[in-house]
Design brief:
Layout lengths: L2 H17 L5 H20 L3 H12 L1 H14 L10 H13 L1 H5 L6 E2 L2 E2 L22
Antiparallel strand pairs: 1-2
Helix pairs in contact: 1-2, 1-4, 1-5, 2-3, 2-5, 3-4
Length: 137
């Protein structure tokens, strides 16, 4: 999954959960944290109007999705690193909202051709030789 897709998915899931009376506080808190981080990023990039777009997305996601995706990309959120706090916050929303999907790796991020949180096994042997050459006085 690409960073912007994950962020939009988490915003959609978080908004839907927050609108329900039965949603747990953990999902709502994770969602609010994600929104705050995104708004902070927008502010850092001088995109104060983008915060309004984020708020409008909660009300009319189908009409504002493309615009929000553009704003996220312009704010530099397409080039996130795997340790970025916005990615972690989006993944946290999805862990709370869809724990099974998160366990299956559904919300892993493709970064520079790699995948974050790769799960698998490695069979075989590996060795490394380290040589230490102290300087003689």
């Amino acid at each position: 999954m690409e960073p912007i897709s994950l962020i939009v998915t988490a915003l959609t899931a978080g908004a839907a959960a927050a609108a329900k009376d039965t949603a747990g506080t953990a999902v709502k808190d994770a969602y609010e944290s994600l929104k705050a981080l995104i708004k902070k990023k927008f502010a850092e990039k001088g995109k104060t109007d983008s915060s309004t777009i984020l708020d409008k997305y909660e009300q009319k996601p189908e009409k504002t999705k493309a615009l929000l995706e553009d704003e996220l990309e312009e704010a530099g959120l397409k080039e996130l690193k795997e340790d970025d706090e916005i990615i972690k916050a989006a993944q946290e929303v999805m862990k709370k909202e869809d724990p099974e999907g998160a366990k299956e790796g559904k919300y892993n991020i493709n970064i520079s051709g790699g995948v974050q949180n790769v799960v698998g096994s490695n069979r075989g042997t590996a060795s490394q030789t380290v040589t230490y050459n102290p300087k003689s006085s």
